[in-house]
Write a structure and sequence with these properties.
Length: 177
Amino acid sequence: MYQEIINHFYPTDTELRHLLLLHSRQVADKALSIVHRHPELGADITFVEEGAMLHDIGIFLTSAPSIHCHGSQPYICHGILGANLLRSMGHETFARVCERHTGAGISLQDILSQQLPLPHQDFLPETIEEQIICYADKFFSKSHPEHTKTVEQAVNSLKKFGSDGTARFLRWAERFE
């Protein structure tokens, strides 16, 4: 199902489509390995794969030329933008993955204190599937897709989002690794 959605928004073979598919596959594979190692979590394996493949669907609407995104919105909005796209197609649960995967989730407090251009609400992963996808995403960067981050490197990249997100990520590392 995720292939149809990706094809809808990325209909031609471009560098951005290639990067999106590569990054999303990396995240999906990491997330699926967590699900396989931790059956006690009860995660829906099909949803985890599809959600991971769709989590960055909105990047084409952002301005991030270094990763082939030539839209007009700030990159930090890509999750919200992707969520809006998926909601317009009737995919609420996947939309929630999109809007909650940035950082280790972003709280209303962080949005306000950092004056982020996001709606004033919490965007924190709630379900186990949302948490696994968000966690797995932190190990891969679209600007350096050839590199897999360590937990320590992922923590360092999260510091800009505040200490709550870093602490949340570290709790996930204890649970998922």
